[in-house]
UniProtKB/TrEMBL annotation:
Residues 551-643 form the CS domain. SUPFAM superfamilies: FAD/NAD(P)-binding domain, HSP20-like chaperones. Pfam families: CS (PF04969). This is CS domain-containing protein. InterPro entries: CS_dom, FAD/NAD-bd_sf, HSP20-like_chaperone. It comes from Ostreococcus tauri (Marine green alga).
Length: 644
């Protein structure tokens, strides 16, 4: 089995990969290899647009996979193809057609990456090889130009072709995702299997299929068929429009909510650090995963697609041979295969939300116009509807799950990576600042999106716990690529200085902290939880029988700024750092300070809200007779009180 040694290996040839490549130097590009199953650029992206029949992109013309955000707009102006950009009415940059986007990308790739080597193959295993591994030692002995950055380790990639690539640095862009499938689908397939003994319940021959299994570009794929599309996002809307334009007899677009119109798949406030301040301040992977889920926007379509939907629906109302219907706020009760008709019989009803809105409308009409609520109208509205369809297309979104990605299983098992919500918690690095020494880079703020303890950098969906809900969108690709390339440059300089940039730093929660970062528990014993009314620290153990006068500190100054809050305590005598003991908990804190003859205590049994224990700290100012307790809040909302 041959092993090729390279300086940089980029896994994937899509938009995320191009964002990175466009920011690399010419020298790095010559030493770079791109690995993709298709062996061509943007193949998976292009196939998706072709299969679904997409005419215009969701992202704006500035969200191109290259370092220059204005490149596509300049290309359109130079070639006179301004009609290929659909201008929205709300002032946002227009959205490009798939055709002009493909032309621009092909032109830019041929000009800039013509000499970049593209290898055909799928990565089936990724493994980190440390500095002492046989692979790295053999590479260092070879004295190759591509191995000078391998002195602290390298990534070993195994392809399905049998080839192996040892890369000093690796950029990973693919993801593993599964389509979300409604629960009624399983019973529906069982009904089909009863009529077709050979059906195993897994294939698409039954007519129920997910968006990734549909290809409307095939000739006569949907002609004269009745199609039901389930979903309320761009994919569902695009499939419905494509089926209608390609000769389907009837197309029904059904969604649980009302169709939402938005130019972006994610709230724009999450495209920058300001909107993600609370997200970045959280160190806990599980909590960050929950916040990520709460930040995600519901399915939506852009203005261009929504206008096409409504125009097509209105134009086909009088045309019984080719109908597009939009059914909002409806859910499927069940679907049963009718062998006699060779069709799916689907029962659906209004959602509870739709019923509430209908009743509210009747009440408003009674209040404003005096029209009595009609029980018959309500009964008609709630009536179940049954319709027949040849095929059912599911466009209900997808679930990303790293733990099911077979290519990264070895890496997950051999490195100390935390996984939350199907996403890895990537390394966030310390950097030196002249004003704040040793400050940790906020997530998405320079951490480099690096897999813990390795030289593998991650872009796309797997970087969601670092970049935020926009990680798998073009804007997230741009943000992550810039940080990634900057981090790679810093790491290269560190390696040349014989410093290991990949060395894992213990978590603050388990590492011994300095007095400025809080106390490690080996300096004092803690009282058991059942004695929390007395305190957190075992004072008897600290005093060791010494008798000191106990002074309870009841006065303090409380200052808040954004996520930080300071509790300033004034003492009657100077206290040294070594004589101060502080214990933080999520909803409590206790401080002991020992003077010559007195012991000063400040204890809050219950704080107003929870704090981030790992980011709480304190400072001692002996010359000013002052101690400042610094607590990190979970939000920038001002506390009404210090005590809960």
């Amino acid at each position: 089995m041959t092993t090729e040694r390279v300086e940089i290996a980029v896994v994937g040839s899509g938009r995320a990969a191009l964002n990175v490549l466009s920011r690399l130097s010419e020298k790095s590009l010559r030493r770079c290899v791109v690995i993709d199953p298709s062996g061509s650029w943007l193949h998976a992206f292009a196939r998706t647009q072709l299969r679904t029949g997409t005419t215009h992109l969701r992202s704006t013309a500035t969200q191109v996979p290259f370092d220059s955000a204005c490149g596509l707009e300049r290309y359109v102006e130079m070639t006179g193809k301004t009609r290929e950009i659909y201008r929205t009415s709300d002032g946002f940059t227009g959205i490009p057609s798939v055709r002009v986007f493909a032309e621009y990308c092909a032109k830019t790739i041929s000009e800039r990456f013509g000499n970049t080597r593209l290898v055909r193959g799928a990565v089936v295993d990724a493994r980190w090889c440390g500095a002492d591994s046989e692979e790295v030692q053999a590479a260092l002995k070879a004295d190759d130009n591509n191995t000078e950055l391998m002195c602290f380790g390298a990534m070993l990639l195994t392809l399905d072709t049998g080839k192996r690539v040892l890369s000093a640095r690796c950029v990973w862009t693919p993801k593993f995702s599964s389509p979300m499938v409604p629960s009624w689908v399983f019973d529906a397939k069982d009904s089909y299997a009863k009529a077709h003994a050979e059906y195993d319940g897994q294939g698409t021959e039954c007519g129920i299929m997910c968006a990734r299994d549909i290809d409307v570009s095939l000739e006569n794929r949907v002609r004269d068929k009745c199609v039901l599309v389930i979903g309320g996002g761009m994919t569902a809307a695009t499939l419905a429009l494509s089926a209608h334009s390609r000769g389907a007899k009837a197309v029904t677009l059904m969604c649980r909510k009302k169709i939402v119109v938005s130019e972006f798949e994610c709230d724009v406030k999450y495209f920058g650090s300001k909107g993600l301040r609370e997200f970045h301040a959280c160190d806990d992977a599980q909590l960050r995963s929950k916040r990520l889920e709460s930040y995600k926007s519901r399915a939506s379509v852009n203005e261009h697609t929504h206008r096409r939907l409504r125009e097509t629906e209105s134009n086909t109302e009088a045309d019984e041979d080719c109908v597009l219907r939009i059914m909002e706020q409806r859910v499927v009760i069940d679907a049963t295969w009718n062998q006699k008709e060779s069709k799916w019989r689907v029962r659906m009803k209004p959602t509870d939300e739709a019923r509430v809105l209908f009743e509210a409308t009747m009440h408003r009409m009674y209040r404003d116009e005096g029209i009595e609520p009609s029980a018959a109208a309500l009964a008609e509205f709630e009536r179940e509807v049954t319709s027949a369809h040849d095929e059912i297309w599911l466009a209900c979104g997808e679930v990303v799950d790293l733990e099911k990605d077979s290519a990264l299983q070895t890496l997950c098992q051999t490195t100390q990576v935390k996984i939350a919500g199907g996403f890895p918690l990537l390394d966030e690095e310390d950097f030196e600042d002249e004003h704040q020494q040793g400050v940790k880079a906020a997530a998405g703020g320079g951490g480099g999106c690096r897999w813990p303890g390795t030289s593998m950098y991650v872009l796309g969906a797997y970087a969601s716990l670092t970049i935020g809900p926009g990680a798998d969108l073009p804007v997230g690709h741009r943000l992550a690529a810039k940080q990634l390339v900057d981090a790679m440059k810093r790491h290269q300089m560190m390696i040349l200085k014989k410093q290991n940039p990949y060395q894992r730093i213990a978590d603050l929660s388990s590492a011994e902290r300095t007095p400025e970062r809080g106390e490690s528990f080996n300096r004092f014993k803690r009282l058991p939880p059942e004695l929390s009314d007395k305190g957190l620290i075992d004072i008897e153990d600290l005093l060791g029988g010494e008798k000191l006068e106990l002074i309870e500190l009841g006065q303090y100054e409380f200052y808040e700024e954004d996520l930080l809050a300071d509790i300033r305590l004034k003492l009657p005598e100077p206290i040294q750092k070594s004589d101060v003991y502080v214990c933080f908990e999520s909803r409590a804190l206790e401080m002991w300070a020992f003077g010559k003859t007195r012991a000063y205590r400040f204890y809050i049994r219950k704080l107003y809200k929870e704090v981030m224990v790992d980011k709480c700290s304190y400072k001692v100012f002996p010359s000013k007779n002052r101690i400042t307790l610094k607590i990190q809040k979970f939000s920038n909302h001002y506390w009404r009180y210090l005590k809960g």
